[in-house]
Amino acid sequence: MGKNILITGGAGFIGSHVVRLMVTKYPQYQIFNLDALTYAGNLENLKDIEKAANYHFIKANILEPAALKAIFEKHAITDVIHLAAESHVDRSIVSPLDFVYTNVIGTVNLLNTAKEYWKDDLSNHLFYHVSTDEVYGSLGKEGLFKETTAYDPNSPYSASKAASDHFVRAYGETYHLPYVVSNCSNNYGPNHFPEKLIPLFIHNIINKKALPVYGDGLYTRDWLYVLDHARAIDLIFHEGKNGDTYNIGGFNEWTNIDLVKLMCAQMDVKLGRAKGESETLITYVKDRAGHDRRYAIDATKLNKELGWSPSVTFEQGLDATIDWYLNNGPWLENVTTGNYQTYYNSMYSNR
Ligand code: NAD
Ligand code: TYD
């Protein structure tokens, strides 16, 4: 059956992989990529599919309700996959309000627009909200985040995502808006903006710049290849239960320092450097405020109910990711000139 799907944040890291998957796998769907093109949005990410007959880009901001209403009406939007967000924890510590605006108010604007536009017949519609495991807070040495884990966000970013998740549920309960939410662990892969750990360190290793490891480096994250997240979103969009939440994760925990050492070792080989050379760039710096110690997802429900599991091992995914950055110098060059330098200097000069 045909659908007119509005994907928000489709020019960003994860959104671009979701847009590509939906455009290429479902020619019967019209895919509308709504993105404000902030520093994190980059249409270069979608160059290969921009001419596809079922792909449409709309430059718009989810903070503008009138624009959203016009877009729903003009394109008869049937479903939403909502990824647009401010997504970097360090930026949220410096500018929390930006996160309240886009992540909370922007999400509520979108919910309102969908509710109003679909109100005569709510059947055959879906509001899919893409969220993060960071809403659950921080784990100790043991345990995993389950769908039933209580929300306990610690950063302005995770607090804003938690608030947006709550609003989505509230619209389901109060207005019967059909919805699903998924909470995913840390993603990595091609097109990741080099402010996050993995792409930042790949960029710095290439340029022989210091690798700023926060605190003692023993913070733990559960890494998932971005294409596996996109596959999970596709599956949940089509087969997820109305009003349900799904955790998505790679069962793949790494302390930051072990991950950085693995990246250094893989890149020494690829760059023809002496064994151990890139590791000498590791520099311990001042910790992040409110730094969550450990994230780890229990993705059993998604596996048991919908049959999803990651398709690549971490070593394969990381290898492919490093290759992508090495083969896409102009992309990296493009996003790390101009404002990026200002960002980098202000974020790292006092650490
Ligand atoms: P990103 O920062 O790479 O991309 C965000 C996109 O949203 C950009 O294209 C940006 O231009 C757009 N955007 C920002 N504000 C907007 C606004 N007001 N109106 C319209 N567009 C706007 O983020 P990402 O890493 O791809 O994350 C996408 C989603 O997935 C987010 O909701 C994030 O919370 C969630 N998520 C991310 C991760 C991760 O590891 N990156 C993990 C789990 C969940
Ligand atoms: P990040 O990629 O920002 O994702 P998140 O904070 O959303 O998990 O950071 C991943 C981990 O790496 C986190 O523990 C913070 C740490 N980190 C550093 O040690 N140095 C850095 O320069 C960055 C950006 C992150």
Structure, described:
- With 351 residues, this protein is of the alpha/beta class.
- It has a domain at 4-191 and 224-252 and 295-314: Rossmann fold.
- 43% of the residues lie in helices and 17% in strands.
- The N and C termini lie far apart (54 Å).
- The model has no long low-confidence stretch (mean pLDDT 97).
- The structure holds nicotinamide-adenine-dinucleotide (NAD) and thymidine-5'-diphosphate.
- The site of thymidine-5'-diphosphate (TYD) has 12 residues, from helix 6 and strand 8.
Question: What fraction, in percent, of the residue positions are helical?
Answer: 40-55%
Rounded radius of gyration (Å) = 20 Å
CATH architecture of the domain at 4-191 and 224-252 and 295-314: 3-Layer(aba) Sandwich
**SSE run:** EHEEHEHHEHEEHEEHEEHEHHHH
Q: How are the strands of the biggest sheet laid out side by side?
A: 3-2-1-4-5-6-10
Largest beta sheet, briefly? 7 strands, parallel
Strand content: 15-25%
User: Which small molecules are bound?
Assistant: nicotinamide-adenine-dinucleotide, thymidine-5'-diphosphate
Uncertain regions spanning at least 5 consecutive residues:
none
CATH topology of the domain at 4-191 and 224-252 and 295-314: Rossmann fold
Total count of helical runs of at least 4 residues: 12
Q: At the fourth CATH level, what is the homologous superfamily of the domain at 4-191 and 224-252 and 295-314?
A: NAD(P)-binding Rossmann-like Domain
Q: Using the coordinates above, name the CATH class of the domain at 4-191 and 224-252 and 295-314.
A: Alpha Beta
